[in-house]
Amino acid sequence: MTNDKILVTGGGIGGLTAAIALRRKDFSVTLVEKSPEWPASGVGIIQQFNVLRAMQELDILDDYLAQSYGFDTTMGFGPRGDSLFSFKAPRLAGEHLPSNVGIQRTSLQNILAGKARELGTDIRLGTIVEKWTDTGAGVEATLSDGTSDTFHVLVGADGIFSQTRQALFPQAPQPRYTGQWVWRYNIPRPAEVTGIQLYYGRVNAGLTPLSADLMYLFMLSEEPVGFQFERDNACTMMHKRALHAAPQIQRLMDNVTENAGVVAKPLEAIFLEEAWHKGRVALLGDAVHASTPHLAQGAGMAIEDAVVLADELATGDAPDLALTRYRNRRIERCRFVNFNSLAIGDMQMGKRQDVDPAEINRQCMTLMAEPI
What we know:
The structure is a single chain. The chain has 11 helices and 19 strands. By secondary structure, the protein is an alpha/beta fold. Strands 6-5-14-15-16-13-17 form a 7-stranded mixed beta sheet. Strands 8-2-1-12-19-18 form a 6-stranded mixed beta sheet. A hairpin with a 2-residue loop joins strand 18 (277-278) and strand 19. Helix 1 packs parallel to helix 9 and helix 9 (298-313) packs antiparallel against helix 10 (319-348). The longest helix has 30 residues, at 319-348. It is globular.
């Protein structure tokens, strides 16, 4: 084991999971997050079977299960609400446990932050890395709280608009808008919604249970470049888009009544095909492979990144060798999720006719069931 110090920048799902995984390997971890509060909304997120396996490995699965809704089944419906398919995901964490869970993002953030603190991570909210220099022997970093230190490795988990990526690879591709927005809202859960329900059509939508009495509704809409979300008119905007969704979704829209409860954002993506690190500085999660939500694996890929990164750094090998192996272990899975999520989105917008979402989901399940 090693006592080398690691600096993680970014306190989202990927950064916090990295802190947990690194602390499990006896690294000393400092995590900085620019927001003075944890950056998470109250709407839901799907955590699939490969994520539950990773959480079991990190010994935080019980915390997940205590604050989430477990399920195995995914169902698909056509534009008129007709049934298209139904399948069950594998139970990778054990036959006595669910395949997937739905959980509120705030609950997930609190679980991860609580465990990171419990394990001894030095967490500093409202703090950024003002300057860093890779000397070859270490990364000298100055933080906005006035402190400075030298770290074995700097991990950039600072999201799709990563400042770490920009400094590390200034010529790298920039995030691009895909043409779609996602709209999310938490509503009461009817008894019949016991797993993911996906609704296809002009406006694609879905339902995911979060608890015994709560679920979240999401919709995907095609919007022009420059589209402006109006916070004071959020419900009306979401209702307007639901007019083109399946009838099951339209019937639920009476529950969408509070503008503040609508979470809407443009779908943007980025993928770095080449190096994911330079020297002693590495990228993780959305900073290197941000995906759209069509395969519900964006957070899962960041969580798996964290586990693999900690594994490789714990070998004690030189950082360049360890970080190269980290990227090589992750590249195939992350590329599949990124490229195929975009393909499904393009199909939904009529840009491609050669895409079979059911087959992509089948391939994704097979790949995600493989060891990381």
